[in-house]
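Entry:
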Amino acid sequence: MGAKTCLVVFTLGLLHVHIAFVASKAVTDQEAAESQVSNSQIAQQRIGDLGLLVDNHEHLHHDHHHEEHDPGFWKKKVIWKEGWKKYWKPGKKQIWKPDWKKIWKPIWVPINVPVWKDIQVPAFKKIWKPKWVEIKVPAWKEVKVPDWKKIWKPIWVPYKKEAWKDVQVPDWKKIWKPKWVEIQVPAWKEIQVPAWKQYWVPKWVKVGIPGEKFLGKDHEGWEYTSHDLWKKKLVWKSAWKKIWVPSKKQIWVPHKKLTWIEDYKQVWRTEQKQIWVEDKKLAWKEAWKQVWRTDKVQTWVPDKKLTWIEAWQKVWKPSKKLEYVPDKKLEWKEAWKQIWVPDYKEIWLPAWKKIWRPVIINEWFPTPDHHDDHHHHHDVGWDRTDLTSQAKVLWKRDNSGSVTSAVTESPSNTQQAVEATTTSIKSR
């Protein structure tokens, strides 16, 4: 009966786990779908806001302009960005290496100057006789010297060895029961946060042209020149505009979670009890043993060496007697002096090389206005201020990642802004 009850409880637990898994997957798919729908609604809402802006500008500016202006175009431009690249160039480093210089030192060498004298005297002839001389030469003799060698002896050491004995002990088995618990799960709420966006406004300024300029001749040959002319220069001024960007705020919503609570059931389990039994193990004991090692001792052994000794033999003959008079002679002795000479060692030196890397950017170019000639009669003169430039539109690409990529100042270019924004949103 108990086994059937446990089987029913286990089946119900598996069924609850399966239901919880299916429910959590459905909630995850629903949240993913809602996030996709919310993203598409945000994009449509932004495009709709830009469309309302287009309609308002067209309604306000309809009374002043009766013809449509060319909205301009985007153009990719390649610019070169300055950079530095590190490389290694060969170089030379001065070192000093030792060298020897040959020099000559003056020394006085004592000499005997021979002087011959004609006399009749007995003379002695120098001769050399061989002779064996007793000498001692070194030799090595091998001898035995005592020494101690470390050895290890095996011995049996008695010890207590642990063993395990199986015993039956009562125990409580932990079981788990399913239970639904109210929890709070995190969710994200769409909010709008303020941000600042930078845009650039074109402005015409006057710049003086120094010097004299030739204007031409009339029919009588008179030449006309002008001094200190003025020209128009287009500059861009920075401005900031406050915008609202979408963001997310974390909130907590109630949810149900299937949890398992623990319970205990008494069971009998087999457990091992530690006991100690007598045993012995083989160990190694340190010991010393006397040994004899061979060593060498230096000794001196007798030997014979052949030498030549000097001897004189007396003879009588008429000859000249050689006498030596002490004197000294100046000679030059060869010597070496250490000097240091310069040398160059090949090394690698770090250097920086300026490089230019191509960077492709998108730049907005407004299309020049095409009007009749009678609309430009008022531009002739010294004042070249373009009154129509105040109604032009500047479109500047924003690299900060915001959704709105242009600032509208004229209703004639608002439709182009909507198309550019829609293309940017689709590409992202």
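Residues 258 and 274 are 43 Å apart (CA to CA).
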